[in-house]
Protein backbone atom coordinates (compact mmCIF):
# COMPACT_ATOMS: atom_id res chain seq x y z
CA UNK A 1 0.00 0.00 0.00
CA UNK A 2 1.23 3.48 -0.85
CA UNK A 3 2.25 5.44 2.25
CA UNK A 4 1.85 9.21 2.44
CA UNK A 5 3.34 11.31 5.25
CA UNK A 6 1.58 14.54 6.17
CA UNK A 7 4.28 16.83 7.57
CA UNK A 8 3.37 19.54 10.07
CA UNK A 9 5.79 22.20 8.83
CA UNK A 10 6.01 24.56 11.78
CA UNK A 11 7.31 24.32 15.32
CA UNK A 12 6.24 27.80 16.37
CA UNK A 13 4.27 28.14 19.63
CA UNK A 14 0.59 28.66 18.81
CA UNK A 15 1.15 27.42 15.25
CA UNK A 16 -1.80 26.95 12.92
CA UNK A 17 -0.07 24.18 10.97
CA UNK A 18 -1.12 21.51 13.43
CA UNK A 19 -4.84 22.33 13.06
CA UNK A 20 -4.56 22.38 9.28
CA UNK A 21 -2.59 19.11 9.11
CA UNK A 22 -4.99 17.28 11.42
CA UNK A 23 -7.98 18.47 9.37
CA UNK A 24 -6.27 17.28 6.18
CA UNK A 25 -5.41 13.93 7.80
CA UNK A 26 -9.04 13.34 8.83
CA UNK A 27 -10.10 13.73 5.20
CA UNK A 28 -7.22 11.64 3.84
CA UNK A 29 -7.69 8.67 6.17
CA UNK A 30 -11.20 8.10 4.76
CA UNK A 31 -9.57 7.04 1.48
CA UNK A 32 -8.71 3.43 0.72
CA UNK A 33 -6.03 3.98 -1.95
CA UNK A 34 -3.19 4.86 0.46
CA UNK A 35 -2.15 4.89 4.11
CA UNK A 36 -1.58 8.22 5.83
CA UNK A 37 0.42 9.34 8.86
CA UNK A 38 0.93 12.69 10.54
CA UNK A 39 4.57 13.65 11.01
CA UNK A 40 5.28 16.53 13.38
CA UNK A 41 8.77 17.93 12.89
CA UNK A 42 8.53 19.31 16.43
CA UNK A 43 8.76 15.70 17.68
CA UNK A 44 12.26 15.32 16.21
CA UNK A 45 14.05 18.17 18.01
CA UNK A 46 16.12 19.04 14.96
CA UNK A 47 18.59 21.83 15.79
CA UNK A 48 19.77 24.14 13.05
CA UNK A 49 21.42 21.78 10.57
CA UNK A 50 24.34 20.23 12.43
CA UNK A 51 25.52 17.39 10.20
CA UNK A 52 29.15 17.79 9.10
CA UNK A 53 28.70 16.02 5.75
CA UNK A 54 26.27 16.97 2.98
CA UNK A 55 22.93 15.15 3.18
CA UNK A 56 23.44 13.67 -0.28
CA UNK A 57 26.28 11.54 1.06
CA UNK A 58 23.78 9.69 3.28
CA UNK A 59 26.31 9.43 6.14
CA UNK A 60 24.40 10.82 9.09
CA UNK A 61 26.27 11.15 12.38
CA UNK A 62 23.65 12.49 14.78
CA UNK A 63 20.94 10.43 16.46
CA UNK A 64 18.23 13.00 15.69
CA UNK A 65 19.15 12.88 11.99
CA UNK A 66 19.13 9.08 11.92
CA UNK A 67 15.69 9.04 13.58
CA UNK A 68 14.36 11.69 11.16
CA UNK A 69 15.81 9.85 8.14
CA UNK A 70 14.25 6.55 9.24
CA UNK A 71 10.80 8.14 9.55
CA UNK A 72 10.94 10.02 6.25
CA UNK A 73 12.32 6.95 4.47
CA UNK A 74 9.14 5.00 5.28
CA UNK A 75 6.97 6.97 2.85
CA UNK A 76 6.25 7.00 -0.87
CA UNK A 77 5.03 10.58 -0.91
CA UNK A 78 4.41 13.59 1.28
CA UNK A 79 2.07 16.46 1.97
CA UNK A 80 3.92 19.43 3.42
CA UNK A 81 1.77 21.80 5.45
CA UNK A 82 3.48 25.17 5.49
CA UNK A 83 2.79 28.61 6.83
CA UNK A 84 4.03 31.63 4.95
CA UNK A 85 6.52 33.68 6.95
CA UNK A 86 8.05 36.70 5.23
CA UNK A 87 7.15 35.50 1.71
CA UNK A 88 8.63 32.03 2.28
CA UNK A 89 8.22 28.78 4.16
CA UNK A 90 9.03 28.30 7.82
CA UNK A 91 12.66 27.98 8.83
CA UNK A 92 11.76 24.78 10.71
CA UNK A 93 10.42 23.08 7.57
CA UNK A 94 13.35 24.21 5.42
CA UNK A 95 15.76 22.96 8.08
CA UNK A 96 13.99 19.58 8.31
CA UNK A 97 14.12 19.20 4.52
CA UNK A 98 17.82 20.11 4.38
CA UNK A 99 18.78 17.38 6.84
CA UNK A 100 18.09 14.61 4.31
CA UNK A 101 18.90 13.68 0.74
CA UNK A 102 18.17 10.21 -0.61
CA UNK A 103 15.11 9.81 1.61
CA UNK A 104 13.31 12.48 -0.44
CA UNK A 105 14.51 11.47 -3.92
CA UNK A 106 12.08 10.08 -6.48
CA UNK A 107 9.03 10.68 -4.33
CA UNK A 108 5.99 12.86 -4.86
CA UNK A 109 5.00 15.86 -2.76
CA UNK A 110 1.94 18.07 -2.45
CA UNK A 111 1.65 21.35 -0.60
CA UNK A 112 -0.92 22.77 1.80
CA UNK A 113 -0.34 26.39 2.68
CA UNK A 114 -1.83 29.21 4.67
CA UNK A 115 -1.09 32.86 5.31
CA UNK A 116 -2.25 36.35 4.51
CA UNK A 117 -1.69 35.58 0.82
CA UNK A 118 -2.76 31.91 1.24
CA UNK A 119 0.85 30.77 1.48
CA UNK A 120 1.43 30.79 -2.27
CA UNK A 121 4.85 32.43 -2.01
CA UNK A 122 6.01 29.87 0.53
CA UNK A 123 5.06 27.08 -1.84
CA UNK A 124 6.82 28.71 -4.78
CA UNK A 125 10.04 28.50 -2.77
CA UNK A 126 9.33 24.94 -1.71
CA UNK A 127 8.78 23.87 -5.32
CA UNK A 128 12.33 25.00 -6.15
CA UNK A 129 13.77 23.25 -3.10
CA UNK A 130 12.07 19.91 -3.69
CA UNK A 131 13.00 19.98 -7.36
CA UNK A 132 16.65 20.05 -6.36
CA UNK A 133 16.00 16.99 -4.19
CA UNK A 134 14.55 15.08 -7.17
CA UNK A 135 11.01 15.18 -5.83
CA UNK A 136 7.99 15.49 -8.10
CA UNK A 137 5.60 18.18 -6.89
CA UNK A 138 1.97 17.86 -7.90
CA UNK A 139 0.17 20.84 -9.37
CA UNK A 140 -2.87 20.86 -7.08
CA UNK A 141 -2.23 23.04 -4.05
CA UNK A 142 -4.56 23.39 -1.06
CA UNK A 143 -4.51 27.00 0.16
CA UNK A 144 -6.02 28.82 3.10
CA UNK A 145 -6.34 32.49 3.96
CA UNK A 146 -5.71 33.66 7.51
CA UNK A 147 -8.59 36.11 6.95
CA UNK A 148 -11.31 33.80 5.64
CA UNK A 149 -10.37 30.27 6.76
CA UNK A 150 -9.47 31.14 10.36
CA UNK A 151 -11.41 32.95 13.06
CA UNK A 152 -9.25 35.76 14.43
CA UNK A 153 -6.35 34.17 12.50
CA UNK A 154 -6.17 31.37 15.08
CA UNK A 155 -9.12 28.97 14.93
CA UNK A 156 -9.20 26.95 11.71
CA UNK A 157 -12.63 27.02 10.03
CA UNK A 158 -12.15 26.05 6.37
CA UNK A 159 -14.92 26.23 3.82
CA UNK A 160 -16.55 22.89 2.98
CA UNK A 161 -15.43 23.23 -0.66
CA UNK A 162 -11.79 22.84 0.45
CA UNK A 163 -12.44 19.11 0.91
CA UNK A 164 -12.66 18.84 -2.90
CA UNK A 165 -9.21 20.47 -3.16
CA UNK A 166 -7.76 17.92 -0.74
CA UNK A 167 -9.15 14.97 -2.68
CA UNK A 168 -8.03 16.41 -6.02
CA UNK A 169 -4.54 16.83 -4.59
CA UNK A 170 -4.50 13.32 -3.16
CA UNK A 171 -5.61 11.86 -6.51
CA UNK A 172 -2.54 13.44 -8.12
CA UNK A 173 -0.19 12.70 -5.24
CA UNK A 174 -1.09 9.03 -4.92
CA UNK A 175 -0.85 8.46 -8.68
CA UNK A 176 2.61 10.08 -8.80
CA UNK A 177 3.74 8.26 -5.65
CA UNK A 178 2.84 4.92 -7.19
CA UNK A 179 4.54 5.78 -10.48
CA UNK A 180 7.75 6.96 -8.82
CA UNK A 181 7.93 3.82 -6.68
CA UNK A 182 8.80 1.91 -9.86
CA UNK A 183 12.11 3.81 -10.25
CA UNK A 184 13.31 3.66 -6.65
Folded structure, characterized:
The chain has 184 residues and is an alpha/beta fold. It contains five helices and seven strands. The protein has helices at residues 17-28, 63-73, 91-98, 120-132, 162-181; strands at residues 3-8, 35-40, 77-83, 108-115, 136-145, 150-151, 155-156. A five-stranded parallel beta sheet has the order 2-1-3-4-5, sandwiched between helices. A two-stranded antiparallel sheet has the order 6-7. The protein is globular.
Report the C-alpha radius of gyration, rounded.
15 Å
Major sheet summary line: 5 strands, parallel
Structural class: alpha/beta
Provide the succession of SSEs. Answer: EHEHEHEHEEEH
Mean pLDDT: 97
Number of strands: 7
Q: Treating each run of at least 4 consecutive H or I residues as one helix, how many helices?
A: 5
Sheet with most strands: strand arrangement: 2-1-3-4-5
Strand content: 15-25%
- Tell the overall outline: globular
- What proportion of the residues is helical, as a percent range? 25-40%
Give the termini distance in whole angstroms: 15 Å
Low-confidence stretches: none
Descriptive key words:
184 residues; alpha/beta; 5-stranded parallel sheet; two-stranded antiparallel sheet; 5 helices
